[in-house]
Sequence to fold (189 residues):
Amino acid sequence: MKKLQYNAPVILSFFFLSLLALLLGYLTKGWTTTALFSVYRASLANPLTYVRFLGHVLGHADFNHFLGNMLLLLVVGPPLEEKYGSRALLAGILFTALVSGILQFILFPHTALLGASGIVFMLIMLASVSGMRGGKIPLTLLLVGALYLGQEIYSIVFVNDSVANFMHIVGGVCGTGFGLLAGRKRPAR
Fold:
């Protein structure tokens, strides 16, 4: 009988923490989702404001929102964790969460943000950058970047929904930057 392997500890822990946040949201009729797992303009004297700067990436509005983000996270994340290492990937996730949380707090005072889509887009762009070798820009990076950015800009201009397209772009920029920095530190193969 084969044993289960916790093969991508950061990605799997992120998944299970997000699932826990979703279940807590259901059990508390949304209180924990609002109090801990959504970021919005609130008093800086409230300690939970600082928790929400990072915690918002674990919160999801419902099971469909959760599934949409987690399926991509579980497909894209483990190979990146293997390539860059758990510590580096965790740093990228925390940085992206913090940047998107602070920007949401400052730029969009009348709306709340929750969900892992900024992290997912960070991972997608990181995966696209990870093919860089010897200073050459992979065509996949340009295609993913153009399609991704085009879709987000189109949605910002023409689609009136509750999707935080600006924060998707922030996640993508963080992933691209992280990939470029990490790529400079690794020798070309």
